[in-house]
Amino acid sequence: MPSFVVLLGGSLIPTSRLLAQVRGSRAIAADGGMAHAEALGLEPELWVGDFDSAGPDLQLAFAHVPREVHPTDKDLTDGELAVRAALARGADRLILVGALGGQTDQTLAHLLLGVRLLREGVPTLLSSGLEEAHPLVPGRFVLDLPPGSRLSLLPLGGFGGLSIRGVHWPLASAEVPLGSTRTLSNLATGAVEVELASGYGVLVAYPEPATL
Description:
The protein has two domains: 3-130, Thiamin pyrophosphokinase, catalytic domain (Rossmann fold), CATH 3.40.50.10240; 136-209, Thiamin pyrophosphokinase, thiamin-binding domain (Jelly Rolls). 21% of the residues lie in helices and 37% in strands. The protein contains five helices and 14 strands. Helix 2 links the parallel strand 2 and strand 3. Its EC number is 2.7.6.2. Residues 139-202 form the Thiamin pyrophosphokinase thiamin-binding domain.
């Protein structure tokens, strides 16, 4: 089953880590997110949206890409429509590039979309290059982060039975209620292992070495 990159219109720094993460993936662009295609070395197979944020130069440069045109007056964002298109093509893993930064409402919506996708069995990474978010639901997750990376766990639905290993400040079977800042600003010491018994949220990581 294929991995898909969905190009969204948020911030992007094409780091070597992000380039490695997207390499070999199929891609779908959402409106102005097509502007990230060249920097990531991707050739999207579909361009989705109402095209209100894709300027004429961008539309000319990628005129050869098939389009799925939607009206401006619609119930879903161009990004979610692009995600649906990827799932319809059999995506079993998604990377939402340009999902972070910019408007707070868009960023939070993307984080919650990532949680929903993981609940539905589709692992999803959200990234701007310098910042990446990993949705968390009950289960065990191992993340390959460079030692010294700063990371925070956001309990969007509270965390029950949360254990974190491979970090400077580990936890074992902790209860972290909605709105708590207890799990902000930790540091990776190696592979980060997270176990969650109940609740949901996201792990936000900055995969650049930090200092204590």
